Amino acid sequence: MNLFDNEDLKWRRFVGDDSVDYPIDYEAALLSIRDDGHVDLLYRWAPNSYCHFHRHTAATTSTVLAGELHVSTMDAQTGEMLETKIRKAGDYAHKEPGDVHMERGGPEGALVLFNLQAIDNSLAETLAKDGTVTGESRFDDILARRRKRVG
């Protein structure tokens, strides 16, 4: 599968609303999902746009394929930024569950491959500024969408 030029990828777009004060514009494409809880996803960010503030509840690896990914580690309780790293094409990272952060594409956006291993059916939690959980990405939900699309 070519990750750079593939018309068969089904992208799901996410944008912000009035509840956030930063530009949210990113897309996700499911590459594979297995019954053992492994999920492979391709994400792409619009230039200088964020994804939602979140906490990974799954072990996660990521590889930047193109552009820059700016990753700001946050304090889950206060929303205070602790540090920001700029990851460039070729950069690889592994994080254990519990990693709280914001991500945004650089000036030219970003294309990133994520590999996750669900724990207790959970992949990530969307957080409000104060750290409260506002949503959850669940393995079973992704699997159900895939089966509905294929079936």
Roughly what percent helix? under 10%
Instruction: Outline the low-pLDDT stretches.
Output: none
What is the number of helices? 1
Order of helices and strands: EEEEEEEEEEH
User: For this structure, what is the CATH homologous superfamily?
Assistant: Jelly Rolls
Terminal-residue CA separation: 21 Å
Per the CATH scheme, the topology name is Jelly Rolls
Query: Biggest β-sheet, characterized?
Result: 10 strands, antiparallel
How does CATH name the architecture?
Answer: Sandwich
Question: What form results from the Cα inertia axes?
Answer: globular
Protein architecture, described:
This protein is mainly beta and 151 residues long. It has a single domain (11-143), classed as Jelly Rolls, CATH 2.60.120. It contains one helix and ten strands. The protein has one helix spanning 139-150, and strands at 11-15, 25-33, 38-45, 54-56, 59-74, 81-88, 92-95, 100-117, 122-127, 133-138. Strands 1, 2, 3, 4, 5, 6, 7, 8, 9 and 10 form a ten-stranded antiparallel beta sheet that branches. A hairpin with a 5-residue loop joins β9 (122-127) and β10 (133-138). The longest helix is centred in the C-terminal third of the chain and has 12 residues, at 139-150. It is globular, with a radius of gyration of 15 Å. The relative contact order is 0.23.
